[in-house]
Specification:
alpha/beta, nine-stranded mixed β-sheet, Rossmann fold
């Protein structure tokens, strides 16, 4: 039985209809680590980190599919299971890097790209990989780019997620009130997020629906 670990509850809803377990970990390494362990306790025999990612490679457009061969986290490398990667159609990038906070500026993304050689970044996959390693089950990653390397994340997006993986509307509205000039950037981000969700829905239908 596959177990999918997401950051957002909205990402978990993309998996409705497939024969698998799914849980939102809240978008933090510790949260997804605990969520992944619970899935194994519930019967998951393989783990997949699923959801959105930030682009580091400038060639990756919003909505680009990210299925890495390896993920890196603070000098530790985790190799994704080849059989799971094959189920997802094969690797689309070589490397994904993980962090405990998002890369929010074009400059920060460029620095990470040069330092790690990773095509994309996320906040959850390392937690899933560590849980898989501890529990002795295989893991892989399926994500889609939401914010490309050549676009900054607006301030409201940086406070959008609460600990349960839901959108924190009060914080988002407060950020917009304080900085209304970010509205156009938020609209672009919404368009990019829609493209990422379309990619993930298509891949779920193609790879995991009977």
């Amino acid at each position: 039985m596959l177990g999918f670990v997401t950051g957002l509850t909205a990402e978990a809803r993309l998996l409705v209809g497939i024969d698998a377990l799914a849980v939102a970990g809240g978008g933090t390494p510790d949260g997804v680590f605990d969520a992944a362990r619970r899935l194994v306790e519930q019967g998951a025999t393989a783990l997949i980190s699923f959801g959105l990612a930030g682009g580091l490679d400038p060639a990756l457009m919003p909505g680009a599919l990210v299925v890495p061969e390896v993920i890196v986290d603070q000098g530790t490398t985790f190799r994704c299971d080849a059989s799971l990667v094959a189920i997802m159609g094969g690797a689309t990038v070589g490397r994904l890097t993980c962090a405990d906070k998002a890369a929010v500026t074009v400059l920060a993304k460029a620095r990470l790209y040069r330092a790690t050689g990773a095509a994309a970044i996320d906040l959850e996959s390392a937690g899933v990989a560590r849980a898989a390693q501890m529990c002795g089950v295989p893991f892989a990653v399926m994500r889609a780019v939401v914010d490309p390397a050549w676009r900054d994340l607006p301030p409201a997006a940086q406070v959008a997620l609460d600990a349960s993986g839901r959108i924190a509307l009060r914080q988002v509205i407060g950020s917009i009130v304080r900085q209304p000039g970010q509205i156009s950037s938020l609209l672009k981000l919404a368009t990019d997020a829609a493209a990422a969700r379309r990619t993930l829905r298509q891949q779920v239908a193609l790879r995991f629906l009977a």
